[in-house]
Amino acid sequence: MTSEALNAIVDEYFHRLDVGLSRLSPSRRGELIDEIAEHVREARAGLTDETEVSLRDLLDRVGRPEDIAAAARADDTHGHTDRRYLSRPLVVRLGMLAVVLAVIGSVLGVVLGGGGATPTSAVVAPTAAVGGFPTGIVFDPSTHTAYVADGEANSLSMINTRTCNAAQTTGCHGIKSAPTAGQDPIGVGIDDQTHTLYAVNGGSGSVAMIDTRSCNAADSSGCSRTRATIAVGGGPEFLAVNQRTNTIYVADTNSGAVSVIDGKRCNASETTACPSNPASVMAGAGAFPIAVDDSNNTVYVGTNDAVAVIDGRNCDASVVNGCSSSPVMVPVGSNPAGIAVDPTTDTVFVSSENGTVSIIDGKRCNASESSGCPKHPTSVTVGSDARGDAVDAAVHTLYVTNAGSNTVSLLDTSKCNASATGGCSSVPRAIPVGRSPRRVVVDPTTQTAYVVNVLGNTVSVIDAATCNAAASQGCPTASAAPVGAAEASPGAVADSNCSPTTAASDSGGPATEITRSSTEVARGTVAGHTWSLWSKKGETGARALEDGGLVLDNRSYGLCPGYPNPAELEMLDAGSRGIVYGVVGYPGRAKLYLSVGTVGSFQTGKALPSPEVRVVNGVSFFLGSLPKSACDYGALELNSTSPGVSAEHNLGFGSCVTNEIVPITASQGIWQLPQGHFPTGFGSGSAGSSSAPAGRAGNGGVANTNDDCSPQATSSQSGMHVAQLTAGSTEVASGTIEGTPWSLWAANGQSGVVAVEQGGFVVNGRWYGMCPGAPNPAEFEMIDASPMGIVYGYVANPGSYSIALRSSGQALPVASTTEVNGGTFFVDLLTGSACSYPSLDLTATTSSVSDQHHFDFGACAADQLVQTTGGYGSW
Q1: d(CA 156, CA 146)
Q2: Is CB count within 10 Å lower at the N or C end of the chain?
Q3: Nearest Cα to Cα of residue 495 among 262, 654, 337, 380
Q4: Cβ 751 vs Cβ 381: under 8 Å
Q5: Chain segment 216-273, per-residue pLDDT in tens
Q6: Where does 83-144 show beta strands of DSSP type E?
Q7: How many CB atoms within 10 Å of residue 324?
Q8: All residues at 6 or more sequence positions from 4 whose CB lies less than 8 Å from its CB, including other chains
Q9: Contact at 8 Å (CB) between 141 and 191?
Q10: Contact 180, 155 (CB under 8 A)
Q11: Residue 87: which of 103, 70, 64 has the closest Cα?
Q12: CB count, 10 Å around CB of 276?
């Protein structure tokens, strides 16, 4: 964008401010405008790369002109004389604006100097500590209670929203809980008419019913009562309630079906009509998020890559003859994870794990009208791994949780909805919260948003009145520190810190080594051997199993899932047949694929019998026998898919000793992959190492040498003529490298990171591929542009990244960066020929997160990409 265009943005900002201040005296108005203008000039001078995105972000942090004007008018009305305004979003001091903004509740902690913003204290949202692996959340206005499903604890935490909200946090400690009569509760919903909370026990395949009148944050007298449950599908996760028809819809991720339950005759007070086999309607594979539009009896269910639009008029508590009809399908971003209905704009918002929110017109795409169901819905790019969403109509904001970037995006629903899409083209502001936020709910009475942080075991408390799409003065500026043990578990390698450890010499001892300090939680037989699983007393979840262990034929063996390997397995030499067992540390029941492996490669080999899987402590325990002796398996490959997420492990094994664990000699893993997605055909280049997996917790893994890009990032398919790109793409950024022009292109009809990946990079009239994407969010490529090399890439996570490159420990020139399509593009000229760099290391850093990549490179060919031969990364 030209400097004239950037100045026009600032001019428009001050025009709005001048209009807002028109009721003040000319001298007073001029004084305020001059003061703010001076600080804006100073802040602009401190920007290293002024773009439209960075400039608008700066102005957003200064504050909306309308808010500043309103505060100034109120200040004059109340006769204040000390007018020191403070900019609430940046928590920036702007001299005389402090008291005025203090009148409307501003609290600030960053001072703006001539060189830019310098933080003096980070603002963190208050949190409430809840049980392990919290997921679903629902708000009950009748009891002022927010119920949080705690997967590891098999219970619900109950937050008193009267005493734990944006204005008061005294009640955010000592949260009460209630058992759910099942394992791994995930989704929760409330039927207002019957005062019944329905909780989906994902690990038990059931739905529990709880009377909210006697089991809430203020009155827990009925929480210990034995509660009835309804058996539903094999992998239920989330549910939605139609308040008009008293119908509860439960989505089964495994089968793709949605169970239909009559809330009038099956609730906390009336259980005689609870069905043993509820009616169901087929939504599609991977049925996961679900929402109901009560106004038109429409059920929206997210599947693997679409939203099923189900007609609730003929498929509800009283009429089920329409449940056999096939629903209309609306394609959206891959792996939809959250659905929110905004009745004020008749818009259905669908957040997907690819970092987008799709916009569906609820007026023209519903139970009775499908003509408006789009083939290509408008979408807006948000953060990494978008999950849950909730609408606050009072402030015209959609809150979207971004599990991959630990943020919540604030989408302006007045400018981005079914009938007005002009505001959908820019990436909305995002605020930092806790680790891996997944679900969010808003209490309109206290104007508070509650955000569930799965890996932090907390709920962030956000002031929705002062932290929304239009106002940011009350927004947090830093993420909350994690609490609990979810992130601290040791990795499973050759000698993990378990009890007992997985070293051969420490396994196979007396059962009492485990049983004296643990509780039995499961038992069975395998290949003629009796086994039992033990959970450490005083602990919960995967950690309790890790510190407990497995007893086989009265001998004790260690269990070591934990981070950074959430899906580790062990192998026992039990004589003629080997036995494998382990824990998948993600919540819910996992599907497993076990095969013969090759050390250092994620290629799947000959399939092995699938182990038995059962949910224990909210996570998956698995155990099975092998066709041959454990000594016959030098490596195993394990693919696991838990609800919404997959992991992949390659393990190498050493020598066998009867009745002992076979030691792990090599280990590498990729995790937090999209559901059912397993990259293949690549290795780490360090397969022999048993001390560190190739990837690390988050999205670990190695660089795919042939990513699905356009063109693919291989030497043979790069360097094509630019016309093959530009015909179907739009230029989104441009510049020069030592006088040579370059341009970046995004594929038409797509948005965000995907559009750039399917577009490409142009230099010297030639087209080269762009391949960030899963599992590598910070990919880069190198071109042999003789006599010098060019390096370029894209950080797919949101935010403004600083880029550093090194070769053999030596720093290279700092790459030029540009924010575009929700990510950071970078490009620079190397100091020598591309052929002289056998490997490169990339570090991409924001104020809150860093990504690292190491790539090995092969032979050079003029005007082509240098082929990536190996690599690994952590992020």
Answers
A1: 10
A2: N
A3: 654
A4: yes
A5: 999 999 998 878 899 997 789 999 999 999 999 999 988 899 999 999 999 999 998 8
A6: 86-87, 92-93, 110-113, 116-119, 127-129, 134-140
A7: 12
A8: none
A9: no
A10: yes
A11: 64
A12: 6
Token couple for 127: 């949190």
Question: In degrees, to the nearest 5, what angle opens at C-alpha 143 toward C-alphas 140 and 148?
Answer: 50
Quick check: bond before 490 cis, omega within 30?
A: no
Residue partners of 619: CB distance under 8 A and separation at least 6: 152, 184, 541, 542, 545, 561, 583, 584, 585, 586, 587, 588
Read out DSSP for 322-338?
TTTSPPEEEE-SSSEEE
Degrees to nearest 5, angle at CA 176 with 173 and 179: 145
Non-local (6+) Cβ contacts of 77 within 8 A are none
Length of the chain (residues)? 875
Residue pLDDT, tens place only, 817-868: 888 877 888 888 888 888 888 888 888 877 656 677 777 787 788 888 887 7
User: What three-state secondary structure class fits 305?
Assistant: coil
DSSP-assigned letter for residue 393: G
Is the separation of the CB atoms in 802 and 817 below 8 Å?
yes
The neighbouring-strand residues paired with 26 are none
Rounded-to-integer distance, Cα 422 and Cα 409, Å: 17
Q: Indicate the DSSP class of residue 632.
A: G
Placement of tokens 């609408």 in the chain: 391
Work out the burial of residue 646: count CB atoms within 10 Å of its CB; fewer than 13 is exposed, 13-18 middle, 19 or more buried.
Answer: buried
For residue 191, what are the CA distances in angstroms to 97, 221, 239, 247, 248? Answer: 47, 20, 11, 8, 8
What angle do the packed helices 52-62 and 3-20 form, to 10 degrees? 20
Alpha-carbon distance values, 741 to 49, 512, 786 (Å): 18, 71, 16
Side chain identity, residue 365? C
Question: Is the pTM value of this prediction over 0.85?
Answer: no
What does the DSSP 8-state code read for residue 505?
G
pLDDT at residue 858 in the model: 77
Residues 344, 255: Cα–Cα separation, whole Å: 34
CA distances from 806 to 287, 322, 678, 831, 854 (A): 44, 62, 30, 12, 10
Q: Is the peptide bond before 838 cis (omega within 30 degrees of 0)?
A: no
- Placement of tokens 């995006």 in the chain: 409
Sheet harboring 578-587: ordered strands across?
569-573, 578-587, 619-625, 612-616
CA distance 190 to 210: 9
Half-sphere exposure (Cβ direction) of 115: Cα atoms closer than 13 Å: 2
Q: What distance in Å separates the CA atoms of residue 241 and residue 267, rounded to the nearest whole number?
A: 12
Task: Give the integer Cα–Cα distance in Å for 392 and 827.
Answer: 40
DSSP 8-state symbol, 816: E
Q: Are 469 and 144 in contact (CB under 8 A)?
A: no
Compute the distance between CA of residue 300 and CA of residue 279 in angstroms, rounded to an integer. Answer: 17
Would you say 198 and 149 are in contact if contact means Cβ atoms under 8 Å apart?
no
Enumerate residues 6+ apart whose C-beta is below 8 A from 12. none
The bridge status of strand 788-795 relative to strand 823-829 is antiparallel
- Both tokens assigned to 231: 């058996």
